[in-house]
Give the backbone structure.
Amino acid sequence: MANVVQAVFQCASGRYVSFSDTSVSDNTTTTLKTGGVGLNQTSNLDFGNALVGETVVAGFIMTNAATTGSVAATFSFGYIENPDGSVSVPVQGGGCYSNQLPMLCKPIRVTVGMLLKCQTTTSDATEVAANVAVVCASGKSAIFQVSAVSDTETEILDLITGGSIGQSLANQRIVKMYATFGNLYGLNDDGGGNSFFFIESPQGQMKGAIMPVNAREGWYADYTNYGIPIGQNDTLKVTWGS
């Protein structure tokens, strides 16, 4: 299924810019470019080219199903990518949003080569992608994802490097996270799993619990504050009960 995605960002200068794609494929990381209907801006520019020299302070990504009347489109994650391919900062998103733009976790000075990326999916009984966006006290950010396995503990891995949370964020302290899970019946509808994602120490002790949202319709991915120190052998996991 294809989804309609539109994002809007606010700059410290007072400038606003819209990014849009009317045919985003499910479970595919997509680069959004400038776009919108009847807006006085240049279309089809990458994030870095559109906003070079600006400092972006707030933004949000909105998802809608391409089929009229459907509410199945759900936001998985979004982020601004550095020119070297690393995550600069996650971006919040959801099915709709009626408030002022949420602030980014840190202002981003835009340079050429930066990209705006996101992923959406269709909320149904078969959707099992578990997604976590992480921000650390140092400013380091990362996106983690895995396809959950029914009634089985599964590790959620770094989207960019493929490493564990311990390998990606060793000696970092997580201060903010949001998580999404687009399954229509939730994360643990048969009681065979856990109703949250969790971070474990090498000894199997739980260091953190992250509550995912099905970010569609009237729901969106909102940050939760944390204070979790990460060791090099820590793991991020999901046990989907279905």
Notes: The chain has a mean pLDDT of 95. The helical segments are 47-51, 165-169. The first strand starts at residue 2 and ends at 11. The two ends are 23 Å apart (CA to CA).
